[in-house]
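Recall that a protein's primary structure is simply its ordered list of amino acids. Everything else, from secondary elements to tertiary packing, is in principle encoded there. The following example makes that idea concrete.
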Amino acid sequence: MTIKEGTLTRTSATVIIKDNDKEHRYGKDYSIEKKENGEWKPVKQIGIYLVEMVSISTLTGELKFDLDWSERYGELENGEYRIVKSVDTAEGKRELYAEFTIE
């Protein structure tokens, strides 16, 4: 999982997930964590956030998610962050990460 070049702002980004070997299923939910003293900590939400419960498949091998976290997290301060997204695989759930820096 990566952030599409040129899309990162303090309130949004486009995330690209590439599945080269198998088809996986993803939901729309995600979270953001900030690195503090060498540890990843959840960023505090500022409002109520509802997620549409859908399952999206990677039939084409690539998915693109436009994320706007302005209502959920507001503007991110300077620092190191990562977007956390869950994926359902044949082996069970696992998490994917896309790290980024706000300057």
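The mean pLDDT is 84. The chain is about 0% helix and 50% strand.
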